[in-house]
Amino acid sequence: xxxxxxxxxLEGVAREKGVPVETILDAxxxxxxxxxxxxxxxxxxxxxxxxxDTGEITxxxxxxxxxxxxxxxxxxxxxxxxxxxxQTAKQVITQRLRDxxxxxxxxxxxxxxxxxxxGIVQSSDHRYAMLDLGNAEAIMPGSERIPYERLERxxxxxxxxxxxRGEGKGPQIVVSRSHPEFIRSLFELEVPELVxxxxxxxxxxxxxxxxxxxxxxxxxxxxxxxxxxxxARGSRVRQxxxxxxxxxxxxxxxRDDTRAFISEALSPARVKEVRLDEEEMIATVIVxxxxxxxxxxxxxxxxxxxxxxxxxxIDIRSESQDLGLEIDEETGLPVAEDEGSAPVAEEAPxxxxxxxxxxxxxxxxxxxxxxxxxxxxxxxxxxxxxxxxQLEESADxxxxxxxxxxxxxxxxxxAGEDDPTV
Length: 422
Prior knowledge:
alpha+beta; N Utilization Substance Protein A, Chain:P, domain 4; CATH 2.40.50.140; GMP Synthetase, Chain A, domain 3; three-stranded antiparallel β-sheet; 13 helices; elongated; disordered C terminus
């Protein structure tokens, strides 16, 4: 066996696998021990040494006592291990290299939970996606993916290291894109103030694939926390949104005053009043009528995220609801007490002057009335004539009565009363 060629091959494998040469030599020595024990007449115990400079291999047979101590040792290097020995050595070396690689990967990623990594999608289905991190592979379970996100083979994406497991088959790196802390890592990548400590993300509430709210606090009075995270013309937050495939991100300012913080958390809705029950951790929020739907959000999303962000159960009411008025679910506006039966204002009777009455009569006479309406008009005219006749009869009767009373008064009056000169 050409030991120099073997050493050159081992060095090439070490560079390719990223494993130290000493580790490979140790694996090779163990392989030769296994191969030696397969040869006829081999000692029960043995050890193998490999000279790293010359590549010379020496096999030592050993005799042990009852306590496992070496009693006698001798050189027992076979002249040729043969085909079986070489095949055995190859299998053992391959396995040892694989184990060494796994140990190296585990040492590299152990303790890196919470870090942000970039990988290339190798495969993806409804169960999990595999990412190539360059020197390791990571697995992303379906529960840790952004809902409805399509991961095409070859796509380069960022992920959050959720867990590093040291299992028997090798370390398993579990990553996530739906975890709330993934948002923090993305912002730390884009906002230097977060890394420097001038700005801090105090709370995160997220519904992956839909919307995220973060509360930020500034430790420097000269730094606007919201503006620092948004960036010039939204450049910083836009990078985060692009990585999240369009997920909406709301950035609000953290407040020490709970009422003010709840008002901030419900943005973009405007809040009029916040009432707190600190024992039950319940906040009753009053908003203008036209802001009710905005405060609640689509399917209650804005209210849910605000509740997670603040830690309070939030009950949102409009001003009308707070006053006990009934609200229309479709319009969000107060409903009248007797809607649909509201009194209609009566029109005042129109009295026309005599000249106007004659003009109206002429207009009616010149108007052509349809056949269907003619009977009704005729009935109306007849009723009017009857009413006029009744009024004339009443007037005649009243005149007769007045004349009779005047005659009686003249007969009863004493003579001379009407002459003022008497």
